[in-house]
C-alpha cells in the first residue's frame, strides 16, 4: 500500500497517525480499496501544478478511485455532472494528472455508506500535507465549497484570484500559491442551480493562469 508512494512525499508520510491508520484498515469496511488509498502520492510532488481538492472518497463500494471526484463505476455522481456542465466537457482524470493535477481529498478514506466518517482521522495529516506542498512546490488550488476552503489558512504565501483582471495584474511572484474558490457543485442540486457554481467561470480562470505560468492551455478531456 505504501510502497508505491513517490519518495518526494516521504517527509509528510511520517505525519500519518499509525494508530488511526491501523484502526481504519482493520475495519475492512472502507472506501477506496486499500491499494488506492495513497494513489495520488505515487507521482512526483514537484511535477504537480494544480490541486483539485475534494472532501472524502465516495462511500459507495467500488466507486472511489483514490482521486477526488473521479468515479470508479459506470455512473457519474451529481457533483461531477455539475462540474462537467460548467466545463461543457467531460473530465479525463488520467490526462489531467499527466498535466500536473493532484486530485486530493481532505480525507483519504471513508466508511462505506457513511460520508464524512473518517474526516477526523485525516485532519492533521491533510493540514501538514497542505503546508508542506504549498511551501515546497507552490501551486494553483481549486477549492470548491466552504469545507474545502477551510484549508486556506494552511496554504503558505497565497493569493486568491477572483477575476481575469487579477490574473492580468499578476507578475512573476516566486513561491506564490494561487487560490480559486467557488461554491460546491453539489449545492446547485439543492438550490435549483442558483448556488453560484454554475457560470462562476472558475475553470476558464484556472486555465488562463495555467497558460500564463506554463505556456499552454489545460486539456480537460
Topology (SSEs and partners):
Elements: H1 10-13, H2 18-27, E1 30-31, E2 50-53, H3 78-87, H4 93-98, E3 101-102, E4 110-111, H5 119-136, E5 140-144, H6 146-149, E6 158-160, H7 164-169, E7 177-182, H8 186-191, H9 202-214
Parallel strand pairs: 2-3, 2-5, 5-7, 6-7
Antiparallel strand pairs: 1-4
What gap, in angstroms, lies between the N and C termini? Answer: 29 Å
Q: How many extended strands?
A: 7
What does the largest sheet look like? Answer: 5 strands, parallel
According to CATH, what is the topology?
Answer: Uracil-DNA Glycosylase, subunit E
Question: What is the N-to-C order of secondary-structure elements (H for helix, E for strand)?
Answer: HHEEHHEEHEHEHEHH
CATH architecture: 3-Layer(aba) Sandwich
Look at the structure and name the CATH superfamily. Answer: Uracil-DNA glycosylase-like domain
Query: What is the level 1 CATH name?
Result: Alpha Beta
Structure in words:
This protein is 35% helix and 11% strand. The chain has helices at residues 10-13, 18-27, 78-87, 93-98, 119-136, 146-149, 164-169, 186-191, 202-214; strands at 30-31, 50-53, 101-102, 110-111, 140-144, 158-160, 177-182. The mean pLDDT is 92. It has 9 helices and 7 strands, in the order ααββααββαβαβαβαα. By secondary structure, it is an alpha/beta fold. It has a single domain (7-214), classed as Uracil-DNA glycosylase-like domain (Uracil-DNA Glycosylase, subunit E, 3-Layer(aba) Sandwich). The protein has a 5-stranded parallel β-sheet. The protein is globular and about 50 Å long.
